[in-house]
Amino acid sequence: MVTLSLLSLCLLSLLGARGEVAPNFNNCKDSFFRNTPVSGLNIALPTPPEPNPEDLKNPEKCLSAYNAASPAYICQRNGNHNYFATLYDRGRRIPLYSAYEMDIKGVPGREGSIVYYEPQLVHPDLPPHQMDKKGSLLEIKKYNQNIGCSERSPQYRQNYKLGWSQALDDNFGSYDRGHLNPAGHHKEDASKATMTHTNVAPQNPKMNKVPWNQYEKKLKDVLSAGCSKMYVVTGVVPSSTWVDQNKRVNVPSHYWNAYCCTDNNDKPLKSGGALGPNTDHNVTEYNSVTVLETELRGLLNVDNNFNIFNGC
Q: What region holds the ENPP1-3/EXOG-like endonuclease/phosphodiesterase domain (predicted)?
């Protein structure tokens, strides 16, 4: 007979491995310098409330993103591997930042196009890896069938649930889907993993294609020179502007980037970053992440607990 203690250990093991949307970044903390996530960025809006849940059958199980905390901590998983970390603002339906280790030596690439979604933003019991829209809808359909969520209720339908939990492809209007973790900083499967809607936010097309694109290339080709490792965090500054009047997807006022360059022993060699308004204006570069943090504290309206890197 299996003992109670052994059964408990098995259960804990299953719980620890279940899912990549979690209360923390424990499953992908190696995306951060010294395994330490950004601190003090407590600016996410609450998860949007579902309208009229009292009229629905079994809403505690059937509603999209039920009982979901905001922000969501996503270990971006494609296949069986976690590639980077994203802090996702459920209320604004945009990522607040994505953190990753740049592939310094690899040939930059752009694998695929932005087609993936995060099923566990819909229901925590769905698969833990990125899926395209067809696959995501199929998983929601199977969940509805297993739990008994009748799609005669509009709020239980597959497209509604997916769109309630995160931004969809057609929610960006005239804006580009601007990468936070750029595909060009990785190769092959890691590049492919960046092609998810939880890693993009509305970005002015002129900014995306010119000044920000130029900075991303400089970060890869120039600023990483002499580094053994390059830890990167790219984020946005939310604003009072939304893509449409329904206030589904927020338009950031600024994009920002921070990097930490280390030697073979993970000792910091240099840090820096960049900040630019989400327009066609130029990007301002910084030779110290400390100076960048000072600028961001005012824009983000956060206090001195805001810290991008631990000791870089």
A: 81-308
Q: Whole-angstrom Cα distance, residue 151 to residue 240?
A: 34
pLDDT digits (tens, 9 = 90+) for 168-203: 999 999 999 999 999 999 988 899 999 999 999 999
Q: List the domain range (segments joined by +) for residue 275.
A: 20-51+70-114+176-300
Q: What is the CATH number of the domain that holds 106?
A: 3.40.570.10
Q: How many domains does the chain have?
A: 1
Angle between helices 158-165 and 133-147 (to 10 degrees): 110
Nearest to 253 by CA among 266, 240, 234: 240
Q: 18: which residues sit within 8 A by CB, 6+ positions away?
A: 128
Query: Is 14 a domain residue?
Result: no
199-244 pLDDT, tens digit per residue, is 999 999 999 999 999 999 999 999 999 999 999 999 999 999 999 9
Using the structure block, give the residue that is written with the tokens 């990125």.
130
